[in-house]
Amino acid sequence: MAPVSLWVRCRVAIKEPCPANNGSSGAWTNIRGLRCGGLLSHAEGIQGVRALSMIRRLDHIAIAVPDIEAAIARFVEDLGIELAGREDVPTESTTTAFFPIEGTQIELIHPMEGAGPVQGFLDKRGGGLHHLCFETDDIETDMKRLQEKGYRFLSEAPKPGAHGTRVAFIHPKSAGGVLIELAEHPKE
Q: Which of 57, 69, 77, 111 is a good FRET partner for 143, with 20 to 30 A between their CA atoms?
C-alpha cells in the first residue's frame, strides 16, 4: 500500500520540538508515511511522538460467574477456547481465569471466600457481563483527566491488579451504567 499524506490536528507530546509546526501542539501538521488503516491515534511509526489518546485497546471483557469451575469447563470444553491461566487478586477479593481471544481476553471473575464487590454483583444481578477494561499508558494522568471531566472513580488511586497491572474503576453512574476499568501494564 502506498504511503499517504494525512492532515491531523496535533495533540501529541513531542520529545523534541517539531520543525513542521515550530513545536506548537495546536498547529495543523502534515504527517507523511502513514499507511491507511494504521492506528493514527497512537502515532505509531512516528519517532519521538507519543499520542495523548488514553485508550490503547480493549484489554479484556470481564464476566462475573457464580461457579468458576463450571464456567472454565464451558469455555474450554464447549467453546474450545484455551485457558491461559488463573490468578487471585486479593485487593479485589477476586479469583480470575483468562481466555485469550485475538486482540483481547475474556476474564472470568469469581469472589474469593464469598466476599467482596463481585459477590455483591452476583447477589444483586446474578452472573453476567461485569465490566470492560481498557489498557492505558499512564493511569494517573488518565484518572486526573477523567476526574476533571466529572467522572467518579471507585478508588482515589490505582490498585494492584492481575498480571502486575495497576487498575482503577470508573463508577458506572459516570459511564452510562457501564463499569469501566483502566489498566496500566508493567513497563517492559
A: 111
Residue 92 shares a structural domain with residue 38: no
157-173 tens-digit pLDDT: 999 999 999 999 999 99
Give the range of the structural domain holding residue 179, as residue numbers without chain letter. 57-184
Report d(CA 91, CA 16) in Å as an integer. 40
Higher-confidence residue: 92 or 110? Answer: 110
CA-based radius of gyration for the chain: 20
For residues 70 and 41, state if they share a domain: no
To the query of whether residue 181 is one of the catalytic residues in this protein, the response is: yes
61 and 152 within one domain: yes
Work out how many domains the chain is built from and give that number: 2
CATH number at residue 159: 3.10.180.10
Distance, CA of 176 to CA of 188 (rounded, Å):
34
Residue 159 near residue 165 (C-beta atoms within 8 A): no
* 162: phi then psi, degrees, rounded to nearest 5: -65, 155
**Active-site hit among 92, 107, 135, 181:** 181
Rounded to whole angstroms, how far apart are CA atoms 96 and 127? 14
Q: Which pTM was predicted?
A: 0.70
